[in-house]
Amino acid sequence: MKRVAILGATGLVGQRFVQLLANHPYFEISALAASNMSAAKPYKEAVAWRLDTPIPENVMDMIVQECKPTFECDYVFSALPSDIAGPIEDEFINAGYTVFSNAASHRMDDNVPLVIPEVNYQHMSIVQSQHTNGKIITNPNCSTIGLVMALKPIADLFDIEEVHVVTMQALSGAGYPGVSSLDVVDNVYPYINGEEEKIMTESKKILGNLNNGSIKPALFDIFAQCNRVPVVDGHLLSVFVKTKKPADVEQIKGAINNFQPLKTFNLPSAPEHPLVYLSQKDTPQPRLHRNLGRGMTVSVGQLTQFSERSLRFLALVHNTIRGAAGCAILNAEMYETMRY
Amino acid sequence: MKRVAILGATGLVGQRFVQLLANHPYFEISALAASNMSAAKPYKEAVAWRLDTPIPENVMDMIVQECKPTFECDYVFSALPSDIAGPIEDEFINAGYTVFSNAASHRMDDNVPLVIPEVNYQHMSIVQSQHTNGKIITNPNCSTIGLVMALKPIADLFDIEEVHVVTMQALSGAGYPGVSSLDVVDNVYPYINGEEEKIMTESKKILGNLNNGSIKPALFDIFAQCNRVPVVDGHLLSVFVKTKKPADVEQIKGAINNFQPLKTFNLPSAPEHPLVYLSQKDTPQPRLHRNLGRGMTVSVGQLTQFSERSLRFLALVHNTIRGAAGCAILNAEMYETMRY
Amino acid sequence: MKRVAILGATGLVGQRFVQLLANHPYFEISALAASNMSAAKPYKEAVAWRLDTPIPENVMDMIVQECKPTFECDYVFSALPSDIAGPIEDEFINAGYTVFSNAASHRMDDNVPLVIPEVNYQHMSIVQSQHTNGKIITNPNCSTIGLVMALKPIADLFDIEEVHVVTMQALSGAGYPGVSSLDVVDNVYPYINGEEEKIMTESKKILGNLNNGSIKPALFDIFAQCNRVPVVDGHLLSVFVKTKKPADVEQIKGAINNFQPLKTFNLPSAPEHPLVYLSQKDTPQPRLHRNLGRGMTVSVGQLTQFSERSLRFLALVHNTIRGAAGCAILNAEMYETMRY
Amino acid sequence: MKRVAILGATGLVGQRFVQLLANHPYFEISALAASNMSAAKPYKEAVAWRLDTPIPENVMDMIVQECKPTFECDYVFSALPSDIAGPIEDEFINAGYTVFSNAASHRMDDNVPLVIPEVNYQHMSIVQSQHTNGKIITNPNCSTIGLVMALKPIADLFDIEEVHVVTMQALSGAGYPGVSSLDVVDNVYPYINGEEEKIMTESKKILGNLNNGSIKPALFDIFAQCNRVPVVDGHLLSVFVKTKKPADVEQIKGAINNFQPLKTFNLPSAPEHPLVYLSQKDTPQPRLHRNLGRGMTVSVGQLTQFSERSLRFLALVHNTIRGAAGCAILNAEMYETMRY
Description:
4 copies of one chain form a homotetramer. By secondary structure, the first copy, chain A, is α/β, with parallel strands linked by helices. The first copy, chain A, is built from 10 helices and 14 strands. Chains A and B meet through strand 7, strand 10, strand 11, helix 9 and strand 13 of A and strand 7, strand 10, strand 11, helix 9 and strand 13 of B.
C-alpha cells in the first residue's frame, strides 16, 4: 500500500481524488493539503463538498495541511489551480517527491511526460531524463483527454491531417464557485480562458513520437473553439477530422470498440473499455453517458464521413474523472506497475 | 395597408409573426389560421402564448380559422410545421395567394426564391418564373440564416472553399412543447432531425448565382453538426471557414460593420445594421445579444485567423425573429417594394 | 426467488423498477409490459432509456408484452400512468395477481393499503379485507412520501394540527418527454395537475389509524402548492407545521436520526436510515442529497421553530426511487416478509 | 431636470438604474460611482454589463468616480451592496445629499422611510424627522416588495393574522458573478443569507401605521423560507395567508385589478396597474410575466381559499426593476412630486 498526498484537496478535482482514492487497492490517502485558508481545519469543514456521494468516512476528520513538502508519503497528486501549481510542485519535486499533476504548469516541459495511459504510456519513460530529486508526470487538460482518446484509433488507422474541435464543456471544469450562474442560465458562455491553446498544443505532444528519450510532437493542424454549457459534469466535443489516408467509418467504429491497449496490465482504475462507440443517432449525451466505465470511458458517436478523407464525430469525456483525477490516478497506477 | 393572414398562428413562430405584425406600417393581420383543434376559438384561447410580451389587443379575440384558402387577404405568411406545410401552401398558391413561407417544404424547389434580403434579394425575381395562380417566396432555416449572413462578407471578399459549422441551438426552434426538459437539463442534446441537411443545402442556394432566371448553387464544401442547448432564444454557431483567397481579419470586421445592402430601401423591419462585430473576447452570447436590432441583427465575434486561408468565428442569430418570422416579413416588405 | 412483472416498464418509473430490480435478492423480472406501441419489441428498442446507468443486460432483449393478465409471475409492479392504470390493474386483480401499484387510481380506495413501510406498514393488513381474486397494495404519490416521512417523527412526538407545504418538484416526476423545456428554462412552472389534491388527501390516510381493519384518516389541516423546477431528480419540500403540543426542535432532530422502524425486518431495499437530518444551513439540496441511502433516504434540514407550536423545515425525496419504484419494491418486500 | 448620481453603478442593480434612467423625464445621470477598482475608467470598461439591451450611449464613456460625496447632483441613488452601503450612505447624508437607497443598511432605522409608493407613500413624510444635512429614503428588499404589494389589498379588506411565504428567487438578486452555476444547475439552492429576516421585519414596517411622525409596525406573524432557482429575473412567491376577518376571493381579485393608488400623481415610472391578477391555472411564471408593466407590475395568481380565513396565492415580482432600481426611482419621483 502506497501512501499518497493530495495537493488542492478541497477543490472540485481534489474532491474527485478523495472520492476515487477511497478504498483504492494500491493507494491510501495519508495527507490532504490546500490553501492557508483551509489548513488546520478538519477536511469536512474545510471543503465545500459538491459531489453527490458523501465525504468518505476515513478523511472526514483528517486535518488539512499547507502545501509544504513535509508529508510522509510515496506519491503526491496535484489538483492545484494552474496559476499557482508550478512553484509548489517544484518545491515537492526538489524535495524528492514523485508528483502526478493535473495542473497545466509543467505539461509542455520538455522532459515531462504528458500521458493518457491508453494513448501513450510509453512516453512515461522520459521521466528518466528528469535530473531532479523527485519526478513529475502530468496528465492533459480535460478536453484534450477526451479529444485525443477519440482521435487515437483514427490516427493509428488513417493518419490525421487536420482537426477542428468545438467543445461544449461542463461547469465542474471551472471549479467551485467557478462559472457564474448568470453566464449559463438561458445562455452559452462562448469562451474559456487558455483552453483552446491547451487543446491545440497538448494533443500534438500526446500523439507525438518518442524518439531517443524525447517527444517529437505530431504534425497536424488543429483548431479549437471552447464553450461553457450548463452541464454539471461531462465535456461534449464536436470534432471534424481530415485524414491523410482515405478513411473507413466501419473500421474506425471497430477500432474504437476494440481499443484495449492496457488489457494486460490489470490496472485498477482502467476501464474495461476506454472507448465505446454508441450507435444511436442522438448520442453521446453528457447526462446519460458520462458515467460509463465509472467515468473512465470516453464515448463516441455520430461518426459520419462527408468525403473520402473528411469525417466528423462527437466525443464525451467525464471531465473530472477521466479528464482529471481519474487519469492522474491511472498514471500513478501505471508508474507503480512499470517501476521506472 | 395590405391585409395578411398567418398560417400556423398558434405555434411559436406564428406567435412571433403576431407579435412583429402588431402595428406594422405596411401590413395588418386579417386572418389567423391553425389546426382544426384551434379553429373556431378566439386566438387568446387557442394559443399557448409563450412570449414575454402580452398578446396584442387587436388579435386577442380574433377567431382562429382553418388553413383553407378562403381568407380575404393580400399576403399569406406560413409558419406551418414543415411536415404538413407543403400541401397546404400548394392549396393557397393554386388559389392565387402570394405566400411567404418559413417552412422547409418548397425552399429547395427550382423556381422558388430562398431569400435573406440582405444577402440575395435579387434572387426574389425568379418568382416570375412561377407559372401558378399564386406565388411563393421562402426564407431559409433559422440556423442557415445566421450562418449565411455571417459568411456573406467573407464570401464577397475572399471566396469560400469550405465551411464547418457546429450549432448550439435554442429551444424555441423546436416549437412548444418541443424539446423535453429531460433532454436539456444538465445535458446537451446532440441531434436535431434534418437540420444538418438543411444548413448544408440551403446555404449553397442562397449564396448561389442568379443566371438567366435560375439559381446556380455556390460551390463549396459545408459540413454541419447540430446541438440543442437550454437557451430560450438565439442560435449560436461556431464556424470554421477556409477561404479560396488569403484572408484578412480586419477587412472582414470592417465589412461586417459596414454591411448595409438594403439601406436605400427603407424597409420597416430591416435593422440599421444587419451584422455587427462584437470585439469582446467572450461574445456573442445568446442572452445578451439575441435582441440586437430588435432581433434582426446577427452578431459576430471571436474572428480568428489560424493560417492564411483558415478562419473561425462565432455567430448568433435570434432564431424566431431574424431566423424565421422576421425574415419572412422582411421578404414581404421587399416584395411589396419591388412589385415583381 | 419470486418472479415479477412490470407494467409500464418503458416509462421513467418503469425504468427505475428495472434498474432497482436488477440483482434483487427476492425478485427477478419475468415480464415487461407496456403500451401497444412498445409491445413485441425488445426492451432496448422499446424504451427511451433516460437513466445514467446502462440498461441491465438481462432485460435488454426481453420482448415487451401488452398489459394483459397473461404473465407467469408472482407479483406485478404497476408503473402505469394514472389516467390508464385503474382498469388495467383491475384486470390483473380480477385474474388473481397481487399488484404493487405506484399509480393513483386505487390509492384512496377504502380497503386498499396506502403504505410507506417505515410509516405505516401495519396498514398493509387491510389487504385481507379485499375480497377479490388478487390483491392490490399501493404506495403514495412521490411528494406525499417525502412529506409524510418527514412529518412522522413530529406527528409521533407533538401531534400535527396544520401543515403548509410548497413543493419544488423534479422533472422526472412527469415522465418522458413530460415537461416542456420552455416551461422550465429561465422559469419555474407553478402548477402540477392533481398534485396538490393528492398530497392533501393521501397524507391523512397514511398518518391515519388502523381500526378494526379500516383506516381512519388523521385529522389535521393541510394545504399544498406545487411547482416544477429544472431539477432532474429529487423533490424539495418547504414545510410549515403547527403542532398540537409545544414542540422541541432538538427532540425532533434526534427522532429523525434515530428513525429506524424497520430495523428488525432486514428488508433488502430498506435504507439503514430512512430519515437523516442534515445540519448545514443550506441543506438539503436535490443534486447533492437525493442519492443518500441509494435514493431511499429522505433528508431533512433547516428545522426552525418560530413559536412554541410553529415550525418549518425542508425535506428532500428522490422522487422516482423512494418516491415511486423504490417504495413499491419495499412494500413488496414487506408483504413477502409478512405473508398476509 | 434633476441631476442624479448612482452609487454602485457597475453592479446588476446599478445597471438597472442606468437602463431605467436613460431618457427619464425628471432625472438625468450626472455621475456614476463604484469601487476603487472601477473608478477612473469609462463606464463601458468598468462594467460587466449583463442586461439584454445595450449600454445607453450617453453613459458609455462617462468616467466612473469613487463613492465620495463630491458630485454635482440633486439626488443620489444607492445600489451599493448592503455590507458596505451604510457608512458610504452616511457620508453622503452628512454632506447634504438626498439619498434613495436600495441597500438594507438603513431600512429599519426609526426615522427612515421604507417605502413602496403604491403601498405606503404616506410614510415618506417621516423623512422630515431626519435632522441631518441630507436625507435618506429607502425601498424594501426585492422579495419583500413583491410580497407586500400582493398582501396590501388583502390587508385592507380582511386584515392579516399570519403569513407563510416560500420564495423561489432569481439569480440577478445576488449580483454578478453571484450565485455559482454549480448551485443551481440540476439543483435548487435552499438558502439566501439574511433574506428571511428581511422579509419578516420589513413587511411589518411597510404595512405599519404612521402615527405622530413615526411608524408603528403591523402586528401579524410572518414566516419565510427562501430558495434560489435558475431563473435570470423574477422572484416567485408562494404565499399562505390567514386573515382576521372571513375572506372573499372574488373581492380580493377585484381589489388587485383595481389597485391604482397613485393614479392622480402621474409618476413616469408608475405602471398603470401595479398589481394584476392572472386567471390561468399555471400563472404567474417568471419568464412570461416578469416584464408586465415594464417590470413594475406585480402579478398574482392561483388565489385559493382553503377555509374561511385561510388563503394562498402566488406572486411574481421583477426583482431588479420593481424589486430594486425601479422602486427607488419611483420613490424619487414621488419625493420630487411631494416636495417634503
